[in-house]
Amino acid sequence: IKSAGCCKRFLHYAFDYETPKTLVIPSLGVGFVFRFTQFLVVMYVVGYVCVVQKAYQDTDTVISTVTTKVKGFAFTNTSDTEPRFWDVADYIIPPQGDHSFFVLTNMVVTPKQVQSRCPELPSPSTICVDDCNCVEGHSDPRGNGIQTGLCENYSTTARTCEVLSWCPLEIDTKHALLAAAENFTVLIKNSITYPKFNFHRRNILPHVNSSYLKRCEFSRLTDPHCPIFRLKDIVSEAGEDFQDMAVKGGILGILIDWSCDLDWWAGECLPKYSFRRLDNKHPVNNVAPGYNFRFAKYYKTADGEETRTLIKAYGIRFDVIVFGTAGRFSIVPTIVNLGAALSFLSLVPVVADWFLVTCSRKRDLYSRHKTTHLTEDADSASVRDFSPSLSLMNLISTD
Amino acid sequence: IKSAGCCKRFLHYAFDYETPKTLVIPSLGVGFVFRFTQFLVVMYVVGYVCVVQKAYQDTDTVISTVTTKVKGFAFTNTSDTEPRFWDVADYIIPPQGDHSFFVLTNMVVTPKQVQSRCPELPSPSTICVDDCNCVEGHSDPRGNGIQTGLCENYSTTARTCEVLSWCPLEIDTKHALLAAAENFTVLIKNSITYPKFNFHRRNILPHVNSSYLKRCEFSRLTDPHCPIFRLKDIVSEAGEDFQDMAVKGGILGILIDWSCDLDWWAGECLPKYSFRRLDNKHPVNNVAPGYNFRFAKYYKTADGEETRTLIKAYGIRFDVIVFGTAGRFSIVPTIVNLGAALSFLSLVPVVADWFLVTCSRKRDLYSRHKTTHLTEDADSASVRDFSPSLSLMNLISTD
Amino acid sequence: IKSAGCCKRFLHYAFDYETPKTLVIPSLGVGFVFRFTQFLVVMYVVGYVCVVQKAYQDTDTVISTVTTKVKGFAFTNTSDTEPRFWDVADYIIPPQGDHSFFVLTNMVVTPKQVQSRCPELPSPSTICVDDCNCVEGHSDPRGNGIQTGLCENYSTTARTCEVLSWCPLEIDTKHALLAAAENFTVLIKNSITYPKFNFHRRNILPHVNSSYLKRCEFSRLTDPHCPIFRLKDIVSEAGEDFQDMAVKGGILGILIDWSCDLDWWAGECLPKYSFRRLDNKHPVNNVAPGYNFRFAKYYKTADGEETRTLIKAYGIRFDVIVFGTAGRFSIVPTIVNLGAALSFLSLVPVVADWFLVTCSRKRDLYSRHKTTHLTEDADSASVRDFSPSLSLMNLISTD
């Protein structure tokens, strides 16, 4: 009998259902406030969280591979340099066609340099009168070599300290400009993956055929999905002038945005191209504006001496930057955001109750029925008089 | 006295505790519905959010550095080319051993090119009868140089327009294949960091010793953590044939997945290797299939003229792609997800109440005790008759 | 009349407001527990979620471009090699100045290699007595070429198998160290974008002028925002010694942290530099410690034979790694986190109710007024006696 009673008590404990007592108030005003607040919360959840922010989606960032291939040739024939024909192997450095490629557009060529001694270029710190002005072994980071301690004639008018260096030194005045580079074209092949969603895509779209690819050229209006770009167009889409940029060099970003909504009801996932200059072209607050670097081709003369042709290469580095976030419906963010929204629904009664007891016409009546006040000195269940049922009980008990 | 009253009212306002009046219903049915719904929500939270999605974790993405070093040599001896021995310095371009390295597997070599004039390769647009067919200064992007306006004998049977270019022109037929490249091995050294968790790891595991590293070779079954890979194995794991791929070239991704659960109760954090061809090998919808680029080695002849050897290099670019997301217990996502789950717990009484007043056998009794209806024209606290306490009050007050 | 009644019922259904009946308990103890629990939750939300974790922000990861330019020159004059002057075009490989640049600090030069035959370097597997020990066509991956099957004199004391290779073979003992490399400086230009917030910034800060940039040098204390770094300082900030590292080479990470709070009330968004060695320098568990690679310069002799100078280049690869997450106030994460917090506020009454019915002094009184128990066999609204209102009703109804 005892265990049966115990079991019964457990059942009561576990399965008795405790539910709040409620009061139904037939007030249009309060009801309207309640429903309107509810409506606002639901609108917010549906409209903003779900439609605008797509908070029901799980997201992943893109992994991508890029191959680039430049085509075109140029011919330079200026007074400073020999006439020369340039093809891809000459002006693309490095040649691999990675996600970042450099197109040589301007250069200072210093041929036939050998390891020897020659007078420095004239500058306030290198001009000398006699050997006493030059310190053997001194190397000025802004100079071109290690001083030998001698003072030599640089020209008929100037004497400068002699340095140990690759001589003759580079004189940064004779430029050879590849103006024709603006008509080079580049084919960009880009494959992307969203590993979380096992989603693969290429920027050469499936419905595109080979003959189209052979003749097309990117144009935002007419051919927005052609992967072949004319360099001039890229630069002008970035708001720059190719010939201006060619002189000092620069860095140009080809941004491919693969942000996609992968849910089946959303449209197709297509790349969006945009172009932006990435370096700072303004001369203010700028050291070494533009983009250039020096490299050398090494030769050996017939008697085994090493010579080099130093090239200060100005040009445009094109960085293909692939970015994007894909979203697809997933249960966890949906639950999290729905949970947050439901929390706000639980705020609605707070608003409505506040309206009920402060603003509604019959607020006294409503709060009298809704709220029971226990008096402070209550011991034998005495309550304040505006609590109807309990006061009533008092009434009867004192009967 | 007044301030004391004011203070008292404040205390009442701040510390009076308002709690809902509740009704306990000893119904097994309703109780079961209530507990079962609760159980479902708790199961969802524990099972799906915590165990499957690990929503209690904060996450970080990987930062990584890769060094690669290829070993092996090859010997080519075809009828088209001179016998030649190839080592790492010859076939790895660029030589640095970055996260992306290219192994030369096939090439078209055009030696002794000089800047001069020569007749174009025959094609419908270059074949000519006399000089009138050739336009001086015209440069066809699909051609090889700038037309001089002359029409020259290309062979005994064909006449083509002469171009200014690097001559002789490249003829894309004489290939030299490095078949032995499939036996080259590559050592991949990869260090990763999860900066948010201050977690560092290498793909050479701590328990591995140097003698093992000197002789091991990656094999998914027997040596899954050896960082030395045979190129042939990489390609065949990606579902391709090395010799096929060597001819036209391609891009092969070596994917290292460092996705880890960094909580102490989870296992060790180990890299997982996978291999995937990244370019599109199918000839449909494909321009320039495979992977190749042109580069040149520049020489000077004894009399100072520049010549070059043009190499059209086909080969496999191996891209080491490191990715991964690590998770570790963190209080904020835990709170957010618990919060969302608790919101769902607050839905449980809604379900149980609905069951109570619509489906349970004694629904009339329950709703009579649970809900009090104020009548619409209530002014002097008149209520509908099935609200016991209030109607009772009326009864007495009308007494 | 019927439709009017129907409409009225719909209005009642839609706009009748159902609110819980509540009991106000004037107990300081319970009130204090309630307010204190509320306070704890609010503190947690404000203090931890909002201030520490900034959970009210939407986040985005950085997209960046890096250009580097090294300056400086060196002179080597050891007994092993000819005196030689080194400038940027000689020691920066590749020359482009990408986000990853390599500074040559030590090298083994093997000049005048030609394709020919020579005896292997002596090792247990290459030493031979006569031709029978050598297998024609055999190529040992750890050797230097393909065996011809002959056994030749390597020196007066040792005979080794002859191989077909680039001869003479590299002998890894004559090093040429560029000790002066520690004084080279590098200018790092870094532009970043947070695309989601349309936020662009450079590591050359707007208030910095050109004259400062021409003379400044990074120093954590005095010039923390100068983008020009002395290589020696980078290495020593990473806890390494430049001269030690120069011998075997290594990889050094220049980490630029652009983690920013983009809210207007937060401070400026500035890059934070840190430096860390990325490869493993310890000889334990290490194959090929340090960082080196082989490359060759190709020459042609007067009679057209190809020769090369093989260079085993040791040096430091500097990887500029840009990372960071920016946060800016956004409504969705704010709502989600507030929602989660509000869920916890709904836990507060549970705690207070539990305290009310178990710990408070007058718990019997409180629970008698708060909770009404329906008896199990209730059919005609019979309830247990401690539910005052209902028992009262019974009293009267049985009257």
CATH topology category name of the largest domain in chain A: atp-gated p2x4 ion channel fold
- Count of DSSP H/I helices of chain A: 10
Cα separation of the termini of chain A: 41 Å
Shape of chain A: elongated
Q: CATH class of the largest domain in chain A, anyone?
A: Mainly Beta
Which range best describes the helical content of chain A: under 10%, 10-25%, 25-40%, 40-55%, 55-70% or over 70%?
25-40%
The CATH homologous superfamily of the largest domain in chain A is named: atp-gated p2x4 ion channel domain
The portion of residues forming beta strands of chain A comes to: 25-35%
Structure description:
The structure is a homotrimer of 399-residue chains. The radius of gyration of chain A is 40 Å and the shape is elongated. Chain A folds into 2 domains: 21-55 and 330-370, no CATH class; 61-120 and 169-328, atp-gated p2x4 ion channel domain (atp-gated p2x4 ion channel fold). In chain A, the strands form 4 sheets. In chain A, strands 7, 8, 9, 10, 14, 16, 17 and 18 form an 8-stranded mixed sheet that branches. In chain A, strands 4, 11, 12 and 13 form a 4-stranded antiparallel sheet that branches. With 399 residues, chain A is an alpha+beta fold. Chain A has helices at 2-15, 28-52, 88-91, 210-215, 231-237, 242-248, 331-345, 348-358, 363-370, 388-397; strands spanning 17-20, 22-25, 57-61, 63-71, 74-76, 84-86, 100-119, 146-153, 159-167, 175-177, 185-194, 199-202, 228-230, 250-257, 260-261, 272-277, 292-300, 306-323, 325-329, 371-373. In chain A, a hairpin with a 7-residue loop joins strand 5 and strand 6. The first copy, chain A, is built from 10 helices and 20 strands. The longest helix of chain A is centred in the N-terminal third of the chain and has 25 residues, at 28-52. Mean pLDDT of chain A is 83; it is low at 378-399. Helices cover 27% and strands 34% of the residues of chain A. Chains in contact: A-B, A-C, B-C. Chains B and C meet through helix 1, strand 1, strand 2, strand 4 and helix 3 of B and strand 2, helix 2, strand 7, strand 9 and strand 17 of C. Strand 2 (22-25) of chain A pairs parallel with strand 20 (371-373) of chain B, so a sheet runs across the interface.
